[in-house]
Amino acid sequence: MSATILVPYDGSEGAERGLTYAAEIARSQGQKLILAAAVEWRLFGIQNPLELAESQADVVKDMERIRKDVLDPRCARLAADGITAEAVVESGPVVSTLIDIAEKHGASQIICGRRGASKLTRLLMGSVSNGLVQTARCPVTVVP
What we know:
Largest sheet: 5 strands, parallel
CATH class: Alpha Beta
Helix content: 40-55%
Strand content: 15-25%
Radius of gyration: 16 Å
Structural class: alpha/beta
Strand order of the largest sheet: 3-2-1-4-5
CATH superfamily: HUPs
């Protein structure tokens, strides 16, 4: 049975741990990976249409940069290992955008890494992983 796993990926150590786990599952079960990123709009302080247009252009540039510099190279490495992977970048609030991507691509599960750089943050789940666990309609695995 072919299924799809959504992996939120930003190139961080936590995201890489989640991807490593997801890649093992994809390889053993013949599943496809969707490496997904969400870029939020920064509307704070925008006071006129020109600033809004500049903010929109910045979001588009960020989306292109994330795809080109982060997701596409990682998808290429996965393909070299025999794993089918697709990069998806959309704009919007991170958690709800990732859930929308999962639903659009028929993801059977979401696998994400937990952030944890300091003593305090190691005790807590990251806000994105927590939000996915609380609101996703499919199973979510958080990799420590």
